[in-house]
Design a protein that fits this description.
- It contains 21 helices and eight strands.
- It has helices spanning 12-20, 31-40, 52-58, 64-74, 97-109, 128-136, 155-167, 184-197, 213-222, 244-251, 262-276, 290-294, 298-310, 317-330, 340-354, 363-369, 382-389, 407-414, 422-429, 431-442, 450-458; strands at 7-10, 44-49, 80-84, 114-117, 140-146, 172-177, 202-206, 227-230.
- An eight-stranded parallel beta barrel has the order 1-2-3-4-5-6-7-8, surrounded by six helices.
- Helix 2 (31-40) runs antiparallel to helix 11, helix 14 crosses helix 15 (340-354) and helix 19 (422-429) crosses helix 20 (431-442).
Length: 467
C-alpha cells in the first residue's frame, strides 16, 4: 500500500467534550482560540451534531443555530463537520422526511460543510433521505459504518454496506468505532478491504476507551486510511479520541507526515488545559477494559451508573454489566450507540432492579421490537418478542414511511415563540425543551455577547466566562 500524507479531523469541539464533559463546553470557551485552530490546517473540525444540539438547549442556555453561525464566522479556512444520526438527526427517535430534509438544508446553510451520517442499526434505509438532501445542498456526504463485534457482525457485511453507501452517492466513508473495539489487526483488514471495494477516501473514528485506538489508527494508516479523528490532549483519551499532538508526533518524519505545526498545537492545547479547570470531568479519563468484556462504550457505563444511582442500586452495577450483553443478544445484536445503547441499557437496568427479566418494558424497547427504529442486525429472540409485544405486528417498511409530515404542525405549535426560521426545526426535534427555551429567549434571557468574546480573543485568547 503506497503511503500518503494523513489528514486529521479534530473533534475537540464536539466529540471530545461530549465524551469527557457530557457535552458541557460553552461557546465562550471555543471562540477565543478559534483563530489559532483555524491556522493549523486540519482536514476538518467536528463542531456540531451528536448531543451538542440538545445540550445547548437543555444545559448551556445557548441557541445551537447561533453557536453554529458563530463558529462558521470564526473558522474561515477550515471546513466544519457535524455528526448526524440519519433519520434521528440529532435526536433520539425517527423524524419525518420533511423535518430531515429541512434540518439538513438549514445545517448546510448555517455553515456545515461535511455531514457524517450514520444509523445505529446500520440500516441504510434510515440514511438515504439525509444523504440525498446533503448531496442536494452541496455538502460533502460522509457515510458511516457503525463498527461493532458480535456473532452476526463480520467485515464481509461491513464491506457490502460500504458498496451500498458508495452507490447512494457517499463522498467518503467513515469507520465509526464508538466503543473502542477496533483492534489493530481488525483495523488493518477492514481498511484494506474497503480500499479494494470502493474508490472513496476512508476515515477512521475510534474512542480510546479500551486503550487500543492509537494502535488501531496506525495499522489503519498502513492499510491506506486517508483521515483519522483526534482531539487535543486535554480532551483526548478516556472515552474520547486519541490525542492530536501525539499522533502528529508519531507520524512526523514518516511518509504519512501530517505536516502540522507541533508548537501551534501545543499553544492550543494549553488553552483547553485552562478551560478544563472550569469543568468537572463527567466520565472515564483512563482506560476502561470493561468495554472489551461487555462491549459497552464508556459513555454508556456512566449512564448506567446514573440510572442505578437514582434508584439507590449502584451495588447492582456488576449485574447490569453482565445483563447488557444478554439483552443485546436477545434483541438481535444492535450496535451500542445512540439511541440503541440507551434502549438496551435501560432494559438491562430494569431487569436487574426488578429481579425479573422483562417484567416491565420501556416504550422505546417496545418500539424497537416492533421495528420502529429499523431492521436489527439479527432476528430478535421469538420468546422475547412475544413477551414484549405479544401478537402485535412487526413492521418491515422503512420506519419513517409511517410518519406524517411534521414541519407544518411544529410551526403552528411554536408560533408564539418563533423569532427565526430555524426555531421551527428546534421545536420539531425537542418540543418540550424547545418550548421552554424559546419562551425564555423572548424575554432576552439567553444571549451570549460575542463581541466581548472576540475582544478577548484579540487580546491574546483570554477565556471569557459570562456571569
Amino acid at each position: 500500500m503506497s503511503a500518503s500524507i494523513i489528514k486529521i479531523t479534530d473533534t475537540t469541539l464536539r466529540d471530545g467534550h461530549q465524551s469527557l464533559l457530557a457535552t458541557r463546553m460553552k461557546i465562550t470557551d471555543m471562540l477565543p482560540i478559534a483563530e489559532k485552530i483555524d491556522k493549523v490546517g486540519f482536514h476538518s473540525l467536528e463542531v456540531w451534531g451528536g448531543a451538542t444540539f440538545d445540550a445547548c438547549l437543555r444545559f448551556l442556555d445557548e441557541d445551537p443555530w447561533e453557536r453554529l453561525r458563530a463558529l462558521k464566522q470564526a473558522f474561515r479556512q477550515t471546513r466544519l463537520q457535524m455528526l448526524l444520526r440519519g433519520q434521528n438527526l440529532v435526536g433520539y427517535k425517527h423524524y419525518p422526511d420533511d423535518v430531515v430534509r429541512e434540518f439538513v438544508k438549514a445545517a448546510v446553510l448555517n455553515g456545515i460543510d461535511i455531514i457524517r451520517i450514520f444509523d445505529a442499526l446500520n440500516d441504510v434505509r434510515n440514511m438515504e433521505v439525509s444523504m440525498d438532501e446533503a448531496k442536494r445542498q452541496g455538502a460533502h456526504v460522509q457515510a458511516s459504518i457503525v463498527y461493532t463485534i458480535s456473532p452476526v457482525h463480520a467485515i464481509d457485511n461491513f464491506v457490502d454496506m460500504a458498496r451500498t453507501l458508495a452507490a447512494l452517492g457517499a463522498d467518503s466513508l467513515c469507520i465509526k468505532d464508538m466503543a473502542g473495539l477496533l483492534t489493530p489487526t481488525a483495523a488493518y483488514e477492514f481498511v484494506s478491504r474497503l480500499k479494494k471495494a470502493v474508490d472513496l477516501p476512508i476515515q477512521v473514528h475510534s474512542h480510546y476507551t479500551s486503550g487500543m485506538a492509537s494502535m488501531a489508527y496506525l495499522k489503519a494508516i498502513e492499510a491506506g486510511a486517508d483521515i483519522i479523528d483526534t482531539a487535543f490532549s486535554p480532551l483526548a483519551m478516556g472515552t474520547s479520541q486519541p490525542p492530536t499532538e501525539t499522533l502528529v508526533t508519531v507520524l512526523r518524519g514518516t511518509p504519512y507526515d501530517t505536516g502540522l505545526d507541533l508548537a501551534l498545537l501545543a499553544e492550543i492545547a494549553a488553552h483547553f488545559r485552562v478551560v478544563l479547570q472550569h469543568y468537572e470531568m463527567k466520565t472515564v479519563i483512563g482506560v476502561d477494559t470493561n468495554v472489551l468484556f461487555y462491549q459497552i462504550p464508556g459513555g454508556m457505563v456512566s449512564n448506567l451508573v446514573a440510572q442505578l444511582s437514582e434508584s439507590n442500586a449502584l451495588d447492582k452495577l456488576p449485574a447490569v454489566l453482565e445483563e447488557v450483553p444478554r439483552v443485546r443478544a436477545e434483541l438481535g445484536y444492535p450496535p451500542l450507540v445512540t439511541p440503541t445503547s440507551q434502549i438496551v441499557g435501560t432494559q438491562a437496568v430494569v431487569n436487574v432492579i426488578l429481579g425479573e427479566r422483562y417484567k416491565m418494558i420501556p416504550k422505546e424497547v417496545k418500539a424497537y421490537v416492533r421495528g420502529l427504529y429499523g431492521r436489527p442486525p439479527a432476528a430478535i429472540d421469538e420468546a422475547v418478542v412475544r413477551k414484549i409485544i405479544g401478537d402485535e405486528a412487526v413492521i418491515t417498511v422503512r420506519p419513517a414511511d409511517l410518519l406524517e409530515p411534521g414541519l407544518e404542525r411544529a410551526a403552528k405549535e411554536a408560533a408564539p415563540y418563533l423569532q427565526k426560521d430555524e426555531d421551527v426545526l428546534t421545536y420539531a426535534l425537542f418540543p418540550t425543551v424547545a418550548e421552554k427555551f424559546l419562551r425564555e429567549r423572548l424575554s432576552g434571557k439567553y444571549k451570549v455577547d460575542f463581541g466581548l468574546v472576540e475582544e478577548a480573543a484579540a487580546q491574546g485568547g483570554k477565556v471569557y466566562y459570562p456571569a
